[in-house]
Amino acid sequence: MHSSLRLVPFVSVPLAFAVTVAPALTAPASAAPVQAPARASAQAASVQAPAAPEECSEEPRDLPTWKFIDYDEMRRELARIERASRGRVQVKTVGKSNRGRSIYTATVGTGPKTFLVNSEIHGNEKTGTTALLRILTWLGTSDSREARRLRSTITFVAIPKINPDGAELDRRGNDNAWSEVQQDFPQLAGRPPAWNYLNTSLQGDDYTRKPGFDLNRDFNPDLNYVPKPEDVPGESALPGWFLNPESQTLRNVYTGLRARKGKVDVYVDLHHQGACVREDAQNRLLDVAVDYPPLPDRFFEPGQKYARYADTYAKDFSKQLAISAFKGMDGRGYIPARYPHAPTRDLPGQARCSLAMIGTGTVLFEVRGQTQTMGHYRSERFTRAVTAGLTSMLNDLSTGRVHGYDPDSFEQLPGTVEDAAATAYRHVHDGPDAE
User: Fold this and answer.
1) Strand 212-213 and strand 201-202: pairing?
2) 8 A C-beta contact, residue 103 and residue 246
3) Which helix (H) or strand (E) element contains residue 392?
4) Higher model confidence: residue 50 or residue 299?
5) Could you give the CA distance from residue 274 to residue 252 in angstroms, rounded to a whole number?
6) Who contacts 304 (Cβ-Cβ below 8 Å, separation ≥6)?
7) Share of the chain above pLDDT 90, in %
8) Residues 6 or more apart from 240 whose CB is under 8 A from it?
9) Cβ distance 378 to 386 under 8 Å?
10) What's the mean pLDDT in 308-327?
11) Radius of gyration of the chain from its Cα atoms, rounded to whole angstroms
């Protein structure tokens, strides 16, 4: 299973990936000038992010996705990066999707601090995969002082396309029927489907013929948890079950890193949200919103349901990491925001929530627009914004600067506002707990 990806033929490198300096840090052409950071090694990429009219629509449409990286292209890029890095980047098969597609990790760096990030846990949220391939290219091939420092202080582990079946279908959920889950877990025979099972229509996609799961509700802070009949179908305020091979793979990667490195310091989950979300400071359509885990504080008090995790919950560190991401994007002229959640919001089945409870700082990235509402429209700008945020987090973790941020200042960052169409879209198509 843990075989290196070496048999894929060489392909020419698209300009989007041929970046050997700190990737995608140039301020977008449509942004106001900003003061460049002092780090001389973080030079600008040679291609400016394209400007685009400020318009949006939440109506699902049949938009082209061919400009995004599909599964086979991702495999070729990983193979190319591994070769070009001359061993700095190690690509391994770490699991299989429910339809048999390999799931890969790409690891670069040998530092004591571990940074784990995945993309496309929802298969129609695609810019994160391109951003990860760019960062891997740069970290694996650059001999700049910055890249050398990051490799020596951080072990960077990327899982691009954690949900390859959903990514190929260009939809949120994976491809897994409840009957297949019951075959894998016979103890669930006779139980109704888990609450995050998708078998109707969502975001313009028909799950009736190919049902699946929202994988980002399938996690549990107890990494040894085995599904119990009495825990299914569950609900959003309860942990998940590791019912799907994709979520099991992420768990296995995490436990393997923790066994080898002692701790996984950071976990980042790259997502998309509605197309018409604005930041509330200047009412501008945003690029990316960031967030720490939505878990109510009162549940960590003695006698409450998360009391056992009170001493390990990485709430403040997660906020500090989110602030770093915000600063990285804002400093390069993009439009970031705080992804607000109510103090009562409780989603323990999300990967970021489960892992934060057991000591890992976790951050959510929410890019504006999904493939059904964006296609490749503005995708270059959004990809560069994600890359800027991740690179800022890597640098601040490497230097220790992240620990100097006041976690309470996260609440002072600009939040987000939705227009009526965006709110209606989120509640009707995704439910109130959309990410």
Assistant:
1) unpaired
2) yes
3) helix 379-399
4) 299
5) 31
6) 298
7) 75
8) 194, 196, 217, 218, 219, 220, 234, 247, 348, 349, 354
9) no
10) 98
11) 20
> Identity (one letter) of the amino acid at 50?
P
Q: Are 372 and 12 in contact (CB under 8 A)?
A: no
* SS3 state of residue 259: helix
Q: Is 4 helix (H, G, I), strand (E, B) or coil?
A: strand
Between 60-74, 110-124, 305-319, 403-417, the lowest mean confidence (pLDDT) is in: 60-74
CA 408, distance to chain mean position in Å, is 23
Predicted TM-score (pTM) of this structure: 0.88
Q: Which stretch of 34-43, 167-176, 177-186, 406-415 has the lowest confidence by average pLDDT?
A: 34-43
Average pLDDT, the chain: 87
Q: Are 120 and 160 in contact (CB under 8 A)?
A: yes
Give 420's pLDDT tier (boundaries 50, 70, 90): low
* Residues 224, 219: Cα–Cα separation, whole Å: 11
**Amino acid 406: pLDDT:** 98
Computed from CA positions of residues 70, 75, 78, 80, in that sequence, does the dihedral angle turn out positive or negative?
negative
H/E segment holding residue 356: helix 351-357
Encoded amino acid at 62, one letter? D
From residue 250, alpha-carbon distances to 104, 123, 166, 277 in Å are 10, 15, 16, 29
Among 311, 344, 389, 425, residue whose Cα is nearest residue 131: 389
**Tokens 């929802």 -> residue:** 122
Alpha helices for 400-419 (secondary structure H): none
- SS3 state at 304: coil
In eight-state DSSP terms, residue 343 is T
Q: Starting at the edge strand that comes first in sequence, how are the strands of the sheet with 416-418 ordered?
A: 284-285, 277-279, 416-418
Say if CB 92 and CB 105 are below 8 A apart: yes
Which SS3 state, helix, strand or coil, does residue 365 take? Answer: strand
* Residue 405, H or E segment: none
Give CA–CA dist 408/372, Å, rounded.
36
Assigned token pair, 331: 């400093």
Residue 334: closest CA among 303, 380, 294: 380
User: Are the CB atoms for 93 and 104 separated by under 8 Å?
Assistant: yes
Candidates 321, 387, 397; CA nearest to 352 is 321
Instruction: Identify the DSSP state of 152.
Output: H
The secondary structure element, H or E, covering residue 391 is helix 379-399
Beta bridge partners of 92: 4, 105
Please count the residues of the chain: 435
Q: How far apart are CA 370 and CA 410, in angstroms?
A: 26
Q: How far is CA 157 from the centre of its chain?
A: 12
